[in-house]
Amino acid sequence: MTRISYQLYCSRNFPPLGNTLKMLAETGFKEVEGFGGLFDDLDGLKAGLDATGLKMTSSHFGLDMVEGDPAKTIAIAKDLGIEKVVVPFLMPGDRPTDAAGWAAFGARLANAGKPLQDAGLVFGWHNHDFEFVATETGELPQDLIAAASDDLALELDLGWVARAGLDPVAWIQKYAGRITAAHIKDIAPAGENADEDGWADVGHGTQDWAAIHSALQATGVDHYVIEHDNPKDHARFASRSLASIQKF
Predict the structure, then answer these.
(1) What residues in the chain have per-residue pLDDT under 70?
(2) Is the Cβ–Cβ distance between 123 and 113 less than 8 Å?
(3) What is the DSSP string of 13-60?
(4) Domain Xylose isomerase-like TIM barrel spans what residues (predicted)?
């Protein structure tokens, strides 16, 4: 049974959170994925989840929190019932500039995750497209990060893989067994949805979902997280995307 979740970052521009959670529950979602900004009001977040019956089974956490205060990270995860902690991003100024730097970052990431893994949590990295820009050696940052530790899980964002000009199916197959969840994200046809940063509702863009879904299922990925970085209407995005995934 494939678990279908919703990354709450999609709805950051549509407050309040309580209304978003109610909308998602009414649309048919059972799970959501969190992000760091939500932890400023843990009581409110817990109340909203409890009121709607939604489960936050995974969440993005900034590396600064994971690395700087693993005990707090673990406490938040346990309090909310989060099973998977994923570091989602590096600001441009913090990104390594060569292969050795990316390898070192991978080792740093793996080391930061050890206390969380020891606490029974899954720990992983979520890609954008900058990890697919070749270094001076021809190696890709994504590969260098993954090579640092076999214990580092991957949350593969299929939208960003495609935006990088690569084949999502090939990357699903490449990292079979390492992918703890997939971000299910669609891309609008060229020149369309400029006011939504070129993203599309799942099933209404250019991604080959039949092939992608088949590859995910063949490699045992059973956790799908839908995402759109900038929807004009998050309720439209949520309902249309859920309907598309249910037809996969």
Answers:
(1) none
(2) yes
(3) TS--HHHHHHHHHHHT--EEEE-GGGGGGHHHHHHHHHHHT-EEEEEE
(4) 23-233
Give the chain's domains with CATH numbers: 3-247 (3.20.20.150)
CA dist., res. 35 & res. 182, Å (int)? 16
Place of tokens 């959170």: 17
Residue pair 105/68 in contact (Cβ under 8 Å)? The answer is: no
pLDDT digit string (tens) for 21-30? 999 999 999 9
Query: What was the pLDDT predicted at 73?
Result: 98
If you ran DSSP here, which 8-state letter would residue 205 be given? S
Residue 59 — φ and ψ, nearest 5°? -160, 150
Cα–Cα distance measured from residue 46 to residue 26, given in angstroms and rounded to the nearest whole number? 18
What residues are paired with 126 via a beta bridge? 155
Q: Which of 102, 94, 111 is nearest to 152 (CA)?
A: 111
Which pLDDT does position 1 carry in this prediction? 86
* CA dist., res. 220 & res. 166, Å (int): 21
